[in-house]
Design goal:
This protein has 11 helices and no strands. It is mainly alpha-helical. Helix 1 (2-22) packs parallel to helix 10, helix 2 (27-38) packs antiparallel against helix 3 and helix 5 runs parallel beside helix 8 (158-169). The protein is globular and about 55 Å long. Mean pLDDT is 82; it is low at 98-102.
Length: 256
C-alpha cells in the first residue's frame, strides 16, 4: 500500500503539472508508471489515466477560462472532429503491427520541450483574431481531424499534438493554446475513460482514487501558476517540464 501510494502520488505530480502547464495528457505519465512499477494491466492503467485526466483537465480549463485564456468556440469544433477521427484512427491502427509507432509520443514530448525553450511562442491574441471566423472554423476542422487520427492511430500523444497544432499552425499564443487543449481533453478523456470501464470493467479502486486526487491537486496548482506567469517564463517552464517528462518516459520504457 505504501509503494502504491508513492507511485500514484509521483505519477499524479508529473501528470498534473504536465496537464496544468502544458495541456499534456495524463495517460502519457500515469499509464507507464502504473504498468512498470505496480504491474497494473495496460488496458486498466490507461483507463485510470484517462479518468485522472477528466477532473485535472476540467479544473485547469476553468482556471484558464477565468483568465480569458481559452477559445471555446473553435475548441468545440476541434473537439468534435478529434473524437470522430480518433475512432477512425483506432480502427485503421488494427491493420498495422503493434509498436510500429510506439515511441512517437515520447519523442514528441521531448521535441516540444526543447522547442519551447529554444524558440518560445510569443504570438499575441490580437494577431490570431485577425483571421476570419470562416478560416478559423476550417482550421479547427482540419486540425481536429489530424490530431484525432494520429491520436487514435498511435494511441497516445493527443495533448501534445493539440499543443503543437494550436501554437505552430493555428497561431495561438501559449496560454490560450494550453487552455483550449485542456478544455478539449476534458471531454475526450471522459469518453475514453467511460469506454474503458464499460469494456474492461472497473480498475483497481485504490489506484484510481489516488491518481485522480493527486493529478487534480497538482493540475490545480500548475494551472494557477501558469496563468500568472509571463509568456517567456511560461514557455521556459513548459519546455523544462516536457523535457523532464520526456526523459522520464524514456527511462520508464527502458526499465520496462
Amino acid at each position: 500500500m505504501v509503494i502504491k501510494l508513492i507511485v500514484c502520488i509521483i505519477a499524479g505530480l508529473g501528470a498534473g503539472f504536465g496537464t496544468g502547464f502544458a495541456g499534456m495528457s495524463a495517460a502519457a505519465v500515469i499509464s507507464p508508471m502504473l504498468i512498470t512499477f505496480l504491474g497494473v494491466p495496460a488496458y486498466e492503467a490507461v483507463g485510470i489515466a484517462l479518468a485522472s485526466d477528466v477532473l485535472a483537465s476540467a479544473v485547469s480549463a476553468n482556471n484558464y477560462r477565468k483568465n480569458k485564456n481559452i477559445d471555446i468556440k473553435n475548441g468545440v469544433v476541434m473537439m468534435i472532429f478529434v473524437l470522430i477521427f480518433t475512432l477512425i484512427g483506432s480502427y485503421i491502427a488494427k491493420l498495422v503491427p503493434n509498436g510500429t509507432m510506439g515511441g512517437m509520443s515520447v519523442l514528441m514530448t521531448t521535441f516540444l520541450g526543447v522547442k519551447f525553450i529554444v524558440k518560445p511562442v510569443m504570438t499575441t491574441k490580437e494577431k490570431r483574431l485577425e483571421s476570419s471566423r470562416k478560416k478559423q472554423i476550417i482550421q479547427s476542422v482540419v486540425s481536429g481531424a489530424l490530431v484525432g487520427f494520429i491520436c487514435g492511430f498511435i494511441g497516445a500523444g493527443g495533448g501534445m499534438m493539440m499543443l503543437l497544432v494550436l501554437t505552430s499552425f493555428l497561431g495561438y499564443e501559449l496560454k490560450t493554446a494550453v487552455g483550449t487543449s485542456v478544455f478539449i481533453m476534458t471531454f475526450t478523456a471522459l469518453t475514453g475513460a467511460l469506454s474503458h470501464f464499460v469494456i474492461g470493467g472497473m480498475p483497481d479502486i485504490q489506484c484510481l482514487v489516488l491518481c485522480i486526487i493527486s493529478t487534480l491537486v497538482f493540475a490545480q496548482i500548475a494551472s494557477k501558476l501558469a496563468n500568472k506567469a509571463s509568456p517567456k517564463t511560461l514557455n521556459r517552464a513548459v519546455g523544462v517540464i516536457l523535457v523532464i517528462l520526456g526523459g522520464a518516459m524514456m527511462i520508464i520504457k527502458f526499465v520496462k
